[in-house]
Structures are given as structure tokens and as C-alpha cells.
């Protein structure tokens, strides 16, 4: 079993040295660093994974005649498989839809978001090209792990070609609320959601992001989640929270390295006697750099007594240097730093020390170790690993972490000083608290956060995700082992042909026909009626429809077929040669009160309606706004509770309906009417929902019980859809 890691960029980046030779160096960035740290440990083998392969763009355009050599070197030396794309295409892809649409929108900057059709097409093209490249290398037992927003379409594209593969997706930036996500054009947002739903497991940094994903699946794809799992078609996608960690030992032990100690000594002598506030960011509008500088300026205004006693070290790593917006941001930042230093500084003291460059690990670790305060205040951030790296370096020194509540890390690092980065006074208050915090409190907060990030490092994060992915995958395999493939269908057909007496029981909605927003539109078509008539005409067969539908509807739709009918979950039965009769004496005194209550809720929820049957009443909300419908459904269940207990009624939660009926009336008891004989040589029952599970459990294991659709079941076998069941029934109807 092999792990296939897929990201926009490989874990190594290609460049051309002074001699014209293509060389490779580790890629920068949190994602690449995190994955490299985990893969190099080899701990994936503890999960039964033998090896790994990293797939992505190598960082530069490779001439066609050099590609074989580059691919061979990457594969042999780095376990990487390059996706070769021209620089122009990658620039249009990455600088276009990725960073002009998804990046600003998902970080809650809709005013900066572009909606360009050509950039959307390029995003589709690159995702498709990744899928074509993967088709060359994916094996049936590979575990596929896709990373981040650049490849949101890829899970479904892989699923189309490799239906049985385990596919996981991890989203490294914020996943926005539905109100933000819906700003995308309808076709775009639907396709992005469908792409993510191609995965077996979708992972997010925080519970909020996971809930946003569920909300978008509900509102955009009309798919509900049940205990964190979304059933759609024949598949189930699980979504869960996995806050990424860091290589804790690397930062924790960094002060023992000679080059780090040398940097610490230099910095200590430079800033002796001053409180160091550290700020490290990549140049980006999401990081809140201007807000932070303004907050620091307000702090200096408020506390002149701290002048010459405190400094802000602002390290900004260059990013997207060719983009005009980022050039303007750099200019604004430098102007503000100049204003602060000009107004408050002196020959002896510079309030803000500014560095605009990438820095070495040794310099970074030294800054973390010596700084008294880390000011990590993004306006929005998926996680923010700077906060965790700072804490990890505090093995022998103390400090205070000031952390934006808009960073994903705030959900874990609750002992940080949490603040709102949009409020000037929040900076002043947080800095005052940090400056005045007693040593004992500082140390206690640090120790608590250090325990958390040491216990859930990048390795635990990766193992947590991959272990969960394998769990979902194995559960799917267990369900897939019940699938009626052609070989099993052939055996079923053989058993059917050999039997001299057969019982075929079939649910209707969701089993023989797909669900419809309006139940009256789910009438059988000519093909279904033809199949049922052929089955019923065979003298060896007894065919029965077991449904929650009212008897008048079943009579209208299926009364022309000589077969048994069971309506209202067993309250009414009609044999092929007889008339309708009630299976018991049922109390109906409660119906008027229940119907009146349901009608009140129908008025409160547009497009919902009440269906009144002889012995039951149902409130349908399939065509409604699903979120409001779920709230109303909860309210209705509560309102019905006392009445149900008083009258001895069952409240049934169906597929987007609530039904009330007499206790003891159910499909299982109704089906007993058809299973009185014990001389059937062949029994088949097919159903799709929870009301069919009792029958699945009760029928002999030698019989054929078939669940239609995805999900856990007691049935012995499964099919994906009503269409597949019809194909099976057609085969049986033509068997003789």
C-alpha cells in the first residue's frame, strides 16, 4: 500500500544554477515543511503504508527534452512525480483563480475577489491535467491525499477514474461560511462542492470550518450530514477536524544548535535591556500588518513611560512581489513604520525594527527564543504555525503569545492572550496585559500550550488524518463487499430460476423510484409497470409492495398489477386476489388534533404540506429550505411528544418528513402477513431507509435482502440506486 501525496507544488523546487544545471531544494511554506517533516520520519509505515510518492508541479517550466531526466532524478532521489506545466499556465492558474478568487473570498475579503470566467476555466484545466498525470501512476491500493484549495476539483476527477481508491482531501486555509461561499457563481460553487465530495474524508483545521463545509453541502448540494458523514449517491464523505501541528522537537531543541546559539548571542547584545515584541508574517493583506502597526502606535501613545524600553521586530517575508496590490501594501507598510519611528524614535531608540526578507532557520529560532512577546494577529488565518513555533522554542525562556481570535490556532492555544485584530484598543489592552503579566502566569500559560503542541505534532496530525481516512475507506470496502456485482447477480438469478416458490417484497419510494420533491410526482413509469406485471404473472412468484403510501395512491398507481399491496406501513393490506382490509382496529381519535398541529407548521414553512391518510398523518418538507425545515421539524417533534405519549403513537422521522401513526404499525409487522408460509425457495426484499432495517434483520440469511443507496445496513446486499434494482428485476422477469 502506497501513499500518494498531491499538492500544487512538490516538496522540492527546481531551479537553474549558475552552471545551467537544474537543481532541487526543499520547498518553502508551511504545507511543504509539515509534510516533509512527517514523510521523512517514516511513521506512515505504522499504518501499514509501505512507501510514498509526492505529486506536484516542480516550480518551473521544464523543456520537453529534459523531462524524462528530471522525472527520473525526482523519482529516484526525492520520491517525487512532477506534473509538467508551462510557467504561463501555472502563473495564470495560481495568480488567477487561486489567488484572485479563492484566496480573498475564503479569507473574507469579498471586495478583493475577482470573478473571471477565463481564470475559472484555467483552474478547471489545471485540475484536469493533474488528474491525467495521476492516471499514469495510481494503483488500485494507493492511499491518495490531496492538499489545499488549488486542487478542490481533483477528488471527484480522481474518483471518476479510480472508483475504489481511498481519497482524502485536506483544506489548509479557512473554509468560509455559506454566506461567503455563495458569492461564487452558482455553477462554480456547485462544481467545487462536488469536487470535494469526491473524497472519502475531507479535513479542516477547526470545528467552525468543518461546520461551514456541512452548511455548504446542505445549502448548495442539498445533502445533509449524519454524525459527520454525508451520504450522496452510492458514496459517503466524512468531514472532520484535524488542526495541523508542527515539528515540535525541531523547534524545542533548536537552542542547542551552534548556529542558533550564535544568533541568540548577537541578538541579546543588540537588544539588551529592552522588551522584544516579535511580529513575523508573509506579506499578505490577510495578515493584518497595517492594523498591527496602528495598534502598536496606539500603545506607544498610551505609554510614553515605555519609550526606549520596548521594540517591535517586524519581519516580513516577501510574497507575490510582482503583483501591484502587494507592492502597494509593502509601500504602505514601510511608510507607516517610517511615521512611527519618526514620531517616537530617537538616535538611541528605534521603536520598529523592520526586515523585508526571508530569514534562516537559525535566525528565526533565535528570534522566537529571545522575544518577550509574539504578536500574531492575522485578520483571518486557516491555522497560523508561527504561533505554535514560538511556543515550541520557549523551552528555557518565557514569553507571552498574543493571538488573533481570527486565527485557527486560537481554538487550540486558549492560554494565549486572545484579541480582536480589527480593534485598535484590543492591541493596546493585549500588549498591556502581556507586559504586566507575572512570571508565574506566563510560565503556566506557556507550559499548558507547550503540552498541547508537543502531544499533537505534525506527525500526530498526519497519522490522525490518515488513520481516519483508512477507517472510512475500510468501512466503504465492508459496504462494498455487499454490492451485488455481476457475479453475485448471476448467483441470485440462478437461485431464483431454481426455486419453485418465490416471494419478492419491494419498498416503493427510494427503492423502485427516486424521491421527488412532490410525492404525487413519483408515479411508476411504463417500464416499471411492465417489469412488475411480468414478475407478478409468473405463477411461481408472489410479489408484494410494502410502502408507507396511502392505499388510494397505491391502488391508483399499482392496482392494475396482480400483486399484493401493503399501505401505510402495514395498516392496510390487499392481496392479489382480494380487496383492501385493515390489519387491525386502530384508534383515529388523535388524527384531528395532529393534523391541525401539522397544518400550523405547514403555514409556517413555505412549500411544506400535510398528507392525511386513513390511519396516519405526515408532514412533508422535501421541497423546502432545508435549514429552516430542520428547525421546524425539531419544533414539531417537540410539540407532538406529549400527544404521542398520551395516545400511544409513534413519531417516525422519514426522508424529509415526519409521520405520526399508531404504535406497533410498521413495515416489519406488515411484512409478516406475506411471510406466513415457510416453503419459499427464494425470498427477496429491497428497501432504502431505516423503516426497512427491521425486515432486513428478521429475514433468514439465506434470503436476499438488498439496501438501495449508501449507508450502514443490516441487509445482506446493496445496490446504488433504484435504476440498478430495476435492471436486476428486469433480469429476473426475463429469466424464464
UniProtKB/TrEMBL annotation:
Protein's GO biological process: trehalose biosynthetic process
Gene Ontology molecular functions: alpha,alpha-trehalose-phosphate synthase (UDP-forming) activity; trehalose-phosphatase activity
One of the Pfam families matching this protein, by short name: Trehalose_PPase
GO cellular component, one term: cytosol
Homology family: Belongs to the glycosyltransferase 20 family.
Name listed for the protein in its UniProt record: Uncharacterized protein
